[in-house]
Design a protein that fits this description.
The chain is of the alpha/beta class and about 375 residues long. It folds into two domains: about 120 residues, Aspartate Aminotransferase, domain 1, CATH 3.90.1150; about 240 residues, Aspartate Aminotransferase, domain 2. The chain is built from twelve helices and twelve strands. The strands form three sheets. A seven-stranded mixed beta sheet has the order 2-8-7-6-5-3-4, sandwiched between helices. Strands 9-10-12 form a three-stranded antiparallel beta sheet. A two-stranded parallel ribbon has the order 1-11. The protein is globular, with a radius of gyration of 21 Å.
């Protein structure tokens, strides 16, 4: 039986062959603990240092500012909790956005339960924050502002540099969840003005289980795991997985070399898919301020559960992969003001480096057929 066409690149990406090849030696013969004081350890440590430099190079950041984590979820937890619990931290307000990933929203809510003040910003109909509302929420005593660069459900790009400038003026730390942006759009930590930035390996054709947090020198962040203090001068403890670190580094290297080509390919597929859909639809989120490898479409008058059931030959989703077990509509689409029925009739479709035009054409035809099967007429 043929496998479904994979169009869920926001959930995870296939590993690039070049990444798999770079990781292979560290699965077998180069198995040393990177923290050991002998040749096996030095060999692994050198490979990790090279990966750190590759990641930093894609961010315009010094290698020593890159702290490896198990993924963007851990990195974002470390950022928010670390800032709020840092020695000498007197500020207690966390400012974030209603459309953030759950790793930020749930962490912010946890901090609120511990006594922090939480300012949760709304978005406009395009899914973008309003800078005047950001500024008002930051005030004069916010501890940290956390806004994602590219939204994982609707693909919109937030004005991170402008938000970071507002945070800097107020003396707040700026954190950016860049899991869906890293390797896809240009990110320079100096130009953006961010203090902390989270990223993940499996969103850029690298392995799962590895990510990193960029930490601007001088940013006070308290460790959230204690032990050997192997990473970031004691900021994170635990033996580093050399193979995964190497994979993330290589994925960053490949992404940097292919960024323009990948972006052009994504835009071509965006135009092709929309050109093949002749039933009524709504694009959820801005059609311009976005990453064009992420398309979230709502189909008025359609039963969403039936639509997904009828599209079993497509690997697509109705929202974030981490929320797939929840029956309620996407919190992101709710923040855009979509009624429940329309939110439930939405599909998140994502493509990338290995998606072909032929697959997009087939996907468009399948979606149209599934929608028309529910009695919806052509537009």
């Amino acid at each position: 039986m043929a496998r479904p066409i994979y169009l869920d690149y926001q959930a995870t990406t296939p590993i690039d062959p070049a990444v798999a090849a770079a990781m292979q030696p560290f699965l077998a013969e180069r198995f040393g603990n990177p923290h050991s004081p002998h040749r096996y350890g030095w060999e692994a440590d050198a490979a990790i240092d090279a990966a750190r430099a590759q990641i930093g190079g894609l961010l315009g950041a010094a290698p020593e500012t890159i702290v490896f984590t198990s993924g963007a979820t851990e990195a974002s937890n470390l950022a928010l909790k670390g800032v709020l619990t840092a020695p000498g931290q007197r500020r207690r307000r966390v400012v974030t956005v209603a459309t953030e990933h759950s790793c930020v929203l749930d962490t912010a809510e946890y901090l609120r339960e511990l006594g922090a003040e939480l300012a949760l910003l709304g978005v406009d109909g395009d899914g973008l924050v309003r800078l005047d509302e950001v500024e008002a929420a930051i005030g004069e005593d916010a501890a940290i502002v956390s806004v994602m660069a590219v939204n994982n459900e609707i693909g919109v790009i937030q004005p991170i540099a402008a938000i970071a400038e507002l945070a800097r003026r107020a003396g707040a730390v700026m954190h950016c969840d860049a899991a869906q942006a890293f390797g896809k759009i240009p990110l320079d930590v100096e130009a953006l003005g961010v203090d902390l930035l989270s990223l993940s390996g499996h969103k850029i054709y690298g392995p799962k289980g590895i990510g990193a947090l960029y930490v601007r020198p001088g940013t006070r962040v308290a460790p959230q795991m204690h032990g050997g203090g192997q990473e970031g001068n004691g900021l994170r403890s635990g033996t580093l997985p050399t193979m995964l670190c190497v994979g993330l580094g290589k994925a960053a290297d490949v992404a940097g070399a292919r960024m323009a080509a990948d972006a052009a390919h994504a835009r071509t597929l965006w135009d092709r898919l929309l050109g093949g859909i002749d039933v009524p639809y709504r694009i959820n989120g801005s059609a311009t301020d976005r990453w064009h490898g992420n398309l979230n479409l709502a189909f008025p008058g359609v039963d969403g559960a039936r639509l997904l059931s009828d599209l079993r030959e497509l690997a697509v989703s109705a929202g974030a992969a981490c929320a797939s077990a929840k029956a309620k509509p996407s919190h992101v689409l709710a923040a855009l003001g979509l009624p429940d029925a329309l939110a439930k009739a939405s599909l998140r479709i994502g493509w990338g480096r290995f998606t072909t035009e032929a697959e997009i054409d087939r996907a468009a035809a399948m979606i149209v057929a599934a929608v028309k099967a529910q009695g919806v007429r052509a537009a």
